[in-house]
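Re: export button greyed out
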Amino acid sequence: MAPILELRGITKRFPGVLANDHIHLTLEQGQIHALLGENGAGKTTLMNILYGLYQPDEGEIFINGQKVTIHSPADAIAQGIGMVHQHFMLIPVFTVTENVMLGEESTRFDGFLDREAAAARVRDISEQYGLAVDPYAYVKDLPVGVQQRVEIIKLLYRKADILILDEPTAVLTPQEVDELFVIMRSLVDQGKSIIFISHKLREVLEIADLITVIRRGRVVGSVRPEEADQYRLASMMVGRDVKLELERPTSEPGEPVLEVENLLVADELGQLAVDHVSFNVRGGEILGIAGVQGNGQTELIEAITGHRHILEGKVRLLGQDVTNAPPRVITELGTGYIPEDRQRDGLVLPFPVMDNLILRTYYKPPFARGRRMEWEAVRQHAEALVKQYDIRTPNVFTLCSALSGGNQQKVIVARELSRPIRLLVAAQPTRGLDVGSIEYIHQQILQKRSQGVAVLLASTELDEILQLSDRVAVMYRGQIVAIVPAAEASKDYIGLLMAGVPPEEARQRIGRKPVEIG
Amino acid sequence: MNPEETPQKPDLGKLILNELNHTSPQPPEKTKRGIPQSVLIPLLAVVTGLIFGAIFIILTSQEVYAGFGQSFGAGLAAMWDVVARSYAALFTGALGDPVRMINALQSGNALEIRRAFNPFLESLVTSTPYIFAGLAVALGFRAGVFNIGAEGQLFIGAITSTYIGYKLVGLPMIIHLPLALLAGALGGALWGFIPGWLKAKTGGHEVINTIMMNYIAFRLSEWLLTGPMKRPGSYNPVSPEIQPSAWLPRFFDDPIRFHLGFFLALGLAYVVYWFLFKTTWGFELRTVGSNPFGAKYAGMDVTRNTILAMTLSGALAGLAGANEVLGVNHFLAMAFSSGYGFDSIALALLGNNHPVGVVLASLLFGTLRNGATRMQLSADIPIDIISVLQAVILAFIAAPAIIRSLYRLRKPAEGEGLITIKGWGG
Amino acid sequence: MATTSSAFHRKIEIVSPTRQRVMGVLFILLGLALVFFFTPGLMQDQTTTFGLSLATSQVQLPPWQVHTLSTLYGLAVVSAILGGIQLARGFGRYTNWMLGLVVGLFIFGFLVWAAAGKSLNLVGMLNTTLSRSVPITLGALSGILCERSGVVNIAIEGMMLTGAMVSALVGSLTQNAWIGLLAAIIAGALLALVHAVLSIKYKTNQIVSGTVINIFATGVTSYISAKFLQVNQALNNPPTFGGTPIPLLSEIPILGPVLFSNSIFVYVMFILLVILNIALFQTRWGLRLRAVGEHPKAADTLGIDVFKTRYMAVVLGGMVAGFAGGYFTLGSAGRFDEVMTAGRGFIGLAAMIFGNWNPFGAFGAGLLFGFADALASRLAILGIAIPSQFLLMAPYIATMIVLAGVIGRARPPAADGVPYEKE
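Workaround output, generated via the alternate export path:
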């Protein structure tokens, strides 16, 4: 029998990039086929081609042995292909039913919406596959995990047989991931086939029937999970041996640099986002904040750096009270801050590299004398930093928008670390970067630690937290549920805490004796 | 470790080049053709606009249809004739008739010389309010605010400077004129401050608010000119005549109206340039304009900068109004502005939101408008043809892809980033 | 995007009570204003008379006479009580209705005061209000069509103006008002197509594109007017649509003369209003249109053609604006004058925002603005000392207040004004 889906020699070029280079891929019916690769390896491009969002420059697609051409998502849907995008394609102000039926509406009298009929189908599907949702709820009111279920229902509503899930676990807790895997199994059992895109080795090994690794737009190889382990997959992904563990020299923590006491912070909607949080970070120490996205880490970081109003509590920096101090005061006391969203907050993309390198110090000598800008000093400063931090740019006048993601992040890192700082706040410092840049940035952070800088690191990548941190604080629903020394911070334990399991119970589950909470 | 300590050999040529590079909004694109597209596209847009205008004139000329009624050749001849006549009138109306200039110089008649050279100087007079208003909009764009309300600010500036101009009697010019100009700037500034404040504090989109402020300004001036500011004894809604001590001095005798305002505008263009590109104020303003989130992260006060930008923009537009009443009209009438506010959006974009570009664009638009006055008289082409031309030029500037495909230009590697203002969604 | 909103909802009350209080205070202030501004100088025994029929009506109702002072006090007390309730516990989701009610009471109070000791024909007033609201409401509907699909349209004014000019020219040439109207609709559609191409295909800033259309429309219409219409009056003399009373319905007292004795423009406005409301919220077409305006990429991934949808919406919007333009020449003046739309398109834009991008909301705003317009023209007759210009400013000021979020935030479609890029 012909495979349900076969891609042959798919090639896609973008200006200056060969995104997909003669890719072959075969999906059997009832299979979970994982597509593994680094960010930027070409996984998403390939899937966008399959879904009709891009046209391939070369290559052919076969479905059930029949050659097909897919010009648009509509074609893909007609061929039984459905995709859950990394960023959800849901309309917040529409109901679940409206979102699900959009594009394939139930109607009466040729054109008038029949919301009841569609809602009934949504209910049927959700019962059949165990995807509990309220058809009349507004999507904006639903938690992320449920929104993802709505996305899956959208595909099933269209009777898709081939489901593409693009990095579906990125926004989920480990427990929600387990639930998703149950759903995936149930889908496959009922005859669906799934392409599962991920860069997380563990998950791929756990769920996939077959793993295809892509590197720089090429298929490196396909392996069965029972034949592979994390190390082998990692070296396939990166193209060389990768040290999964970082060498972390020991360091003696010094005096507390940052002290946070009973912090209470609200989010944009006026809801409590940070709920009585207390901790401190000492010089020469990295405190990692673990947690699933949306549990208050963003707000906590913003509050500490002066970008969000603190309702209650105290923040002290080097013994000085900086609660609700202007960002500039906090910066001048010696804080470096790598923001979570580098393109939105960290850079001014339409500005040259050299302007971005003085974004936080532009008003001080030597860059300004009084109110007058000293552009020559700015240029010299920029040229030195470009050399020192290995920023790949034609020159310092190049606009930041023209740089790659890794180099954009290097601009931020150079700017923040080149100042004499005592505290470094790094939020998601390596999100979306290639392995080389990740390693580089990790090393820079560790170097600052050895220089006695206190580092507060927030990341949703648990691996990153565990590799770098001296202590790990876990945030769940706005609270720090535990602070765990590195030695006791196992992945399972932290994962359970991130999912909201109380520390006591979590320890029992992983079969360990309770220890003191730091 | 500290990069500032790294010694660098200064290279003078490189230094100057960098200086120039940096003070221009973007480093120049590397084009093999020599002329960067940021200059080429506006030029081609203007040329294409003139061609479009010619087609429009042909299509609306009875002579052409009459000609084609006779024969194809007569039709073509009529087409050529009408376009040539119109654009010749436009040219001589805008810059002067060379033959007449030479004759006048030879005759030595002072009045005749003034008359012969007047068209050119009159073009500068027409350009002056454009420079002020264009700078106003460009400054706004640089700071991320879309000031579509220059028209209203201009009106208010005209009202306040007129009031100071006729109400204060007996002041020496050295005090009265600056005072009247200041009043115009303050009036416009107030009209810009309100939508700026609303945007910064409540998020109300400045495009809607400035449009609303425009109409409030029109109604206000209507009321003032029929009520409190009406000229005593006049049946028309006009203000009293402004005291000569508040007039912007003219450089020549009648009929030449060329006045100090032009140099004031040029001076202001330099100030705006210096402010935007050479000071930390300007750096903050441009950062807020390009990325308000990044500006907030950098510790800049986005609220204050937004309000500041709208206020300064309003002040510049207000000066445009003051310049017209103090330099040209010497009183305020109801139908006083002729769409400078909307035209200034075209000017700012045509000039790439750079003061030098704005001055050049203003000179062009002023010249065209002045020439069109003559065209209306001698070629029977209504002056409104200018609005058509301006609209078409603006369309080409705003959608450079059209120009590129017309003239087969290559697409530059980097985005244009002329405007960073989004609609009122999201 | 709201897709990352977290699961826990421990609301800290820092936002909403403010609005409740502002509203309550506003109601009470309006009540107080009735007393402080309007009652001084009124005689004890003064009455206000409202005419309830037109001279042409078949059924003549006796005029309605109210005692001026006690009516004003009564209205003030009701406003104050509503304000008190609002402060004490709030009207929740009925707050906006209450606001409408209190503003209505205030306007009525204003009329009672304005016509104190005199007679004001209420029916005539309401009829004028309705007809003045026509171009505003139609302009707003045009805007809603465009913006619900994600394209900002500030060129309604230009499209109206062009529609007005074209309908005058074509109507005069053919001596047929219907053909003139059709030409206006086509002209609106063509200009809208330019706006659509610039903003959808070339991804021009939509406000700039709208400005292009506005400048162009002003130029072309004035040019044609100066070159042809003013020179040759035969080209500027179109037949007009007079009043078309609907049999029977127009005989209903009060309602008849107000609603059912109008020109076709009023009827079409009502029909469009209902159709657009149903089409947007109850049909497949509307669901897709709104999806494109909220999250075009999501719509695209479900096989909806974002570009086609937007083109269609903008061109339809242009047709509505062109039709509205026809009102000025064929439904009202009977000739074209330069810049005769006088900013009605922009007021339409304001009405759209005021009505929160909903057809009926926009109609309500259109009525309010039309009322200000109608009242302004009667101030002199009533002998009121307020300059009419200040009344005419009211719509603009009201819009700015709404936009500032004092009375609940207006929420535009999420992708409004953002060009869609297919990657």
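The first helix of chain C runs from residue 16 to 38. The button fix ships in the next patch.
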